[in-house]
Amino acid sequence: MRTFFSVVGILLAIALAAVGVLGYVTSTVTGVADRFFAAGAAGDLDEARALLSEDFRQSTPDGELAAFLAALSLDGFRGVSWTTRDIRPNSSELEGALLIGSGQPVPVEVELLRHGAEWRIHSIRQDQPGISRVAGGIPVPGIRQAQSMVMRTTTRFADAVKAKDFTDFYENAAATFRERYSLEEFTRLFSGFIEKNVDLTVLAQLQPRLTAEPALLADGLLQLQGYFPTRPARAYFAYQYTYGIGGWTLTGIDFKLTNVSG
């Protein structure tokens, strides 16, 4: 009988140890993801980037990562509620929701890979509000999401014009954009707005009107075009975005003011 209880005790100890190890691994995996979003909310790009896998870091420039975090609108970030945890020896997947201010939770999925004794984020998938279509495996945003993208791009552009400095705007654009233009070349393209002291920040109070449904071009880029109902000059925009790990990132811009009659 004593032997029986000894065996049971050993098995129970092993089971408890296994539960403890699983609990530790789970908390470590979720902890890395929690730290990433907390760093994003604090604007600490270096900390957020340090929590990414090597492949993620190499394929995602700082500007694209910053644009993704900005698009999450993490002001008032309260944490992440993880509802599903699929923990495996070398890879794990988490599903949950970002808790931001008093708004609706934002669904998010995170894949992590083990690098030695450390876990690092390999991919992030974040659902956007509104109806999305899929074309060629790329999600096409609905009208509401497209308008939000236009507002973010326009606001950053307006802030750059007001500051007379396009550096931040340029660095947050896609790598393909920066390969096509140097900062100096891009600044020259829109120097007229700066020279004439045009204040575009008023556009933040208006709703952009799309003149065409969001659609993918032949090369897979997303084009959003339309205008802001300003007078006497109407603000027209045509933005192009490329889809990557962090979602949509600006890769082309045409913005102009045209006088309208009536």
Polypeptide structure, described:
The chain is α+β, with helices and mostly antiparallel strands and 262 residues long. It folds into two domains: 2-126, Roll (Nuclear Transport Factor 2, Chain: A); 133-259, Roll (Nuclear Transport Factor 2, Chain: A). The chain starts with a helix and ends with a strand. The model is unreliable at 8-25 (pLDDT under 50). 41% of the residues lie in helices and 31% in strands. It has nine helices and eleven strands.
Q: What is the compact description of this entry?
A:
The chain is an alpha+beta fold and 262 residues long.
Secondary structure layout plus pairing:
Elements: H1 2-42, H2 45-50, H3 54-59, H4 62-71, E1 77-87, E2 91-100, E3 106-115, E4 118-126, E5 133-135, E6 138-140, H5 143-163, H6 167-171, H7 175-180, H8 183-189, H9 191-195, E7 209-210, E8 215-216, E9 222-228, E10 233-244, E11 247-259
